[in-house]
Give the backbone structure.
Amino acid sequence: MRISIITACYNSSATIEDTLKSVAMQDYGDIEHIIIDGSSTDHTLKIVNKFPHVSRIVSEHDKGIYDAMNKGIAIASGDVVGILNSDDVYTNNLAIERVMNAFKDNGIDAVYADLQYVKYNDLEKVTRTWHSGKYSKRKFYFGWMPPHPTFFVRRRVYEKIGNFNLLLRSAADYEFMLRVLLKSDYKVFYIPEVLVKMRTGGISNASIGHRLRANREDREAWRINNITPYFFTIPFKPLRKVLQFFFK
């Protein structure tokens, strides 16, 4: 099977070389690496062009990171699609092989794993490990989600339920996973292993203000899908008010 890995970038010259190296070193044999660039004005494209493993490069203005991802999905030819941001890296050369081994079971529609947050200037300095744990729909109702850079789905899933919703600035990945894991009956497989390192300072966790906005968008993702998380029905009013502050 072929896997398409989509990397959206814009003025990412400080970090994208590490991302490209982590894909280039993968042992898995059939990888389509698609770069969707938002018309960078720094040396991003010069760096990308140094890597012969890159399959396709698109550089043009877009409406943001999720628009770029949607462009990549539209041209992807792989049986499986993964997203690797331009400041993230795979932890080792077997990461994609581990993912694709899980997809050998044709009944598996989505695969996810664990992730480590690392210092922006030091990929070896781990600040937090995101242990996803096994999936259950009940956990999702209480705020659980898998880390998006470790989330791989078959291309047929995108074809059936659609791509990222551009109305959500930072929660489009969360809303997409709601559709895949909660509203649908797709079968998911968990790999209990750290497959991706993410530099701190992303769009949804760069500041308290960004985190609050992201939480409000998370609630909007539930509203769009006509689902109510359990904590909105908590009878203890003070606790409910605290939770709704972060998700209002």
Observations:
- Residues 203-209, 232-236 have pLDDT under 50 and may be disordered.
- The chain is about 35% helix and 25% strand.
- The longest helix spans residues 208-224.
